[in-house]
Amino acid sequence: MAMVNIRDLRKVYEGGFEALKGVSLDIEEGEILALLGPNGAGKTTLISTICGITLPSSGRIEVGGHDVVDDYRQARNLIGLVPQEINLEPFEKVLNTVRFSRGLFGKPRDDAFVEQVLRKLSLWEKRDSRVMELSGGMKRRVLIAKALSHEPRVLFLDEPTAGVDVELRRDMWETVEELKRDGVTIILTTHYIEEAEEIADRIGVINGGEILLVEEKEALMARMGQKELHVELTDALDSVPESLSSYDLKLSEDGQTLIYTFDAKADRTGIGRLMAAMPEAGLKVCDVNTTQSSLEDIFVGLVHGQDKTEEEQVA
């Protein structure tokens, strides 16, 4: 059974705005799912609904087998949430902040566990510092410590590295990997495509309140990622020679480079025949290189494709 089970989830706000349009999704225990989407796609609404911050208009959500509406307390006890906004008591000390969060969930005092969490997040040396004295990155670490204080089995990270420098971002990625090794299920929303590429097991893409796809990261990139062969020419062209028309080549704006898209996993890529045909077409090659589609290219293509479809439907 999935750790998080979502079926036909809809959220309609007053005024008729439909933020979630029949979302169905299974999230397995111990996996890291990265949820990508532009601003207003429904990422935060989805997380807020799973966590019980907002009520669904219809549909069903279960966390660890507990319905988030009918069995709220049991479901919420399994969940840790790191929100986008840094909302902490500025005058409270770090240690007390984390202890208090643990107590809110009815957990008995456990100073050894709290120390372990703070050390894991490099906050132990700051335990007696007031929150207002911390940097933005350290405050985000405190948010994670608060979310982990009651030993949740599901952790939601809503844009956790927004505004955090690169070094601190990588430290937090390592923390997420360690949590995964402990068996924690992690759902991450992010604007940083490299974050998803670095740590996610599966990628989900949401736009306009709908899940466009959910797929294993490697399989997604293998299925949708394409390689391009860039052939730089000695002399610029006005158009692709007729003798090379069967290769479906694109010509760069400056006419200096021919671009050939191919499947790197195919038995025959056609590259050998293409390169042999170049001299026959009277072309002189001065450089050749290949590029691989990134997850960002794939993401932009999916979202752009959906937006285009919606425009066609309106038209």
From TrEMBL:
InterPro entries: AAA+_ATPase (IPR003593), ABC_transporter-like_ATP-bd (IPR003439), ABC_transporter-like_CS (IPR017871), ABC_transporter_ATP-binding (IPR050763), P-loop_NTPase (IPR027417)
UniProt-listed Pfam families: ABC_tran (PF00005)
PROSITE patterns referenced in this protein's UniProt entry, alphabetically: ABC_TRANSPORTER_1, ABC_TRANSPORTER_2
CDD domains with a match to the protein in the record: ABC_DR_subfamily_A
Coiled-coil region: none
Alphabetical list of Gene3D superfamilies matching this protein: P-loop containing nucleotide triphosphate hydrolases
Keyword Nucleotide-binding: yes
Protein name: Daunorubicin/doxorubicin resistance ATP-binding protein DrrA
Native source species: Pelagimonas phthalicica
